[in-house]
Specification:
The chain has 2 helices and no strands. It is mostly helical. The chain has one domain. Helix 1 packs across helix 2. This is DUF1146 domain-containing protein.
Length: 72
Protein backbone atom coordinates (compact mmCIF):
# COMPACT_ATOMS: atom_id res chain seq x y z
CA UNK A 1 0.00 0.00 0.00
CA UNK A 2 2.72 2.46 0.99
CA UNK A 3 4.76 1.51 -2.07
CA UNK A 4 1.76 2.16 -4.34
CA UNK A 5 1.03 5.54 -2.76
CA UNK A 6 4.72 6.44 -3.04
CA UNK A 7 4.76 5.48 -6.73
CA UNK A 8 1.62 7.50 -7.45
CA UNK A 9 3.12 10.51 -5.68
CA UNK A 10 6.31 10.20 -7.71
CA UNK A 11 4.29 10.05 -10.95
CA UNK A 12 2.21 13.10 -10.03
CA UNK A 13 5.28 15.11 -9.01
CA UNK A 14 7.15 14.09 -12.18
CA UNK A 15 4.23 15.05 -14.43
CA UNK A 16 3.97 18.40 -12.66
CA UNK A 17 7.71 18.99 -13.12
CA UNK A 18 7.43 18.09 -16.82
CA UNK A 19 4.47 20.48 -17.19
CA UNK A 20 6.46 23.23 -15.45
CA UNK A 21 9.49 22.56 -17.67
CA UNK A 22 7.34 22.78 -20.81
CA UNK A 23 5.83 26.17 -19.92
CA UNK A 24 8.52 28.29 -21.64
CA UNK A 25 8.22 26.33 -24.91
CA UNK A 26 7.10 28.57 -27.78
CA UNK A 27 4.19 26.44 -28.97
CA UNK A 28 3.31 28.97 -31.69
CA UNK A 29 6.50 27.88 -33.52
CA UNK A 30 5.25 24.27 -33.57
CA UNK A 31 1.47 24.58 -33.78
CA UNK A 32 -0.77 26.59 -36.08
CA UNK A 33 -3.53 27.16 -33.52
CA UNK A 34 -2.01 27.48 -30.06
CA UNK A 35 -5.33 28.21 -28.32
CA UNK A 36 -7.22 25.22 -29.76
CA UNK A 37 -8.43 22.34 -27.56
CA UNK A 38 -6.22 19.97 -29.54
CA UNK A 39 -3.14 22.05 -28.65
CA UNK A 40 -4.08 21.94 -24.96
CA UNK A 41 -4.50 18.17 -25.09
CA UNK A 42 -1.16 17.86 -26.87
CA UNK A 43 0.59 19.86 -24.12
CA UNK A 44 -0.98 17.65 -21.46
CA UNK A 45 -0.01 14.46 -23.32
CA UNK A 46 3.58 15.65 -23.78
CA UNK A 47 3.80 16.47 -20.07
CA UNK A 48 2.36 13.05 -19.14
CA UNK A 49 4.79 11.23 -21.46
CA UNK A 50 7.84 13.10 -20.18
CA UNK A 51 6.63 12.88 -16.58
CA UNK A 52 6.07 9.15 -16.88
CA UNK A 53 9.57 8.65 -18.25
CA UNK A 54 11.04 10.70 -15.40
CA UNK A 55 9.00 8.80 -12.80
CA UNK A 56 9.95 5.42 -14.25
CA UNK A 57 13.60 6.41 -14.15
CA UNK A 58 13.46 7.44 -10.47
CA UNK A 59 11.38 4.45 -9.39
CA UNK A 60 13.72 2.06 -11.19
CA UNK A 61 16.73 3.81 -9.66
CA UNK A 62 15.22 3.43 -6.17
CA UNK A 63 14.41 -0.23 -6.83
CA UNK A 64 17.94 -0.96 -8.00
CA UNK A 65 19.45 0.92 -5.05
CA UNK A 66 17.34 -1.14 -2.66
CA UNK A 67 18.40 -4.34 -4.43
CA UNK A 68 22.06 -3.37 -3.99
CA UNK A 69 21.68 -2.50 -0.31
CA UNK A 70 22.08 -6.12 0.98
CA UNK A 71 25.32 -6.49 -0.98
CA UNK A 72 27.14 -3.96 1.18
Amino acid sequence: MVNTVFSLAIYIIAIYVAWWALLPVKWDKVLNQVRSPQAAVLRVLVAVVFGSLIAQFFLEYIRLAQALAPIQ
